[in-house]
Amino acid sequence: MTLAPLLAAGPVIQLHAFSAIAAFALGLVQLLAPKGTLPHRSLGFIWVALMVVVAGSSFFIHTMRSWGDWSPIHILSVVTLVALPGAVAHARGHRVAAHKRAMTMIFAGALVIAGFFTFMPGRIMHEVAFGVAVPAAP
Would you say the C-alpha torsion 21, 25, 30, 31 has a positive or negative sign? Predict the structure, then answer.
């Protein structure tokens, strides 16, 4: 494992990746820690801000192109940016079950599922985790 491919990437990709890693770690803490506490609320706002950075920065990354500059991952970014305010509104309105469901779905979709695809061969995070594939000698 080496961070070299990520550190060699452009600043937007670095911002996106490091924000996603931080959001994933903090999201795990939020899912496992006691709910309804001041730390949960405070860390939750930080998590939402990180998710806005992750989703927002994706619009400046065009390494996968399905429709012009865009790919299906950009749809997930739009969904994330639309879902986050609703999830926060559920919490503020004391609709705990709806808040939990929304935040869990955002975490699963935007970080776990999307994150899985970043580890596909040819992607930067694959190189970070598994190294660069060296072609066999002829």
Answer: positive
pTM of the model: 0.87
Residue 78 has a pLDDT of 94
121 pLDDT higher than 60: yes
Residue type (1 letter), 124: I
Cβ atoms 92, 84 nearer than 8 A: no
CB of 31 closer than 8 Å to CB of 104: yes
Angstrom distance (rounded) from CA 41 to CA 38: 5
What does the DSSP assignment read for 92-115?
Answer: HTT-HHHHHHHHHHHIIIIIIIHH
Residue whose C-alpha is closest to residue 20's, from 132, 114, 130:
114
CA-to-CA separations, 47 to 5, 9, 23, 136, in angstroms, rounded: 26, 24, 6, 43
* Two structure tokens written together for 16: 């996106």
pLDDT in tens, 2-38: 888 888 889 999 999 999 999 999 999 999 999 989 9
Q: Which amino acid is at 97?
A: A
Strand positions, DSSP E, 7-96: none
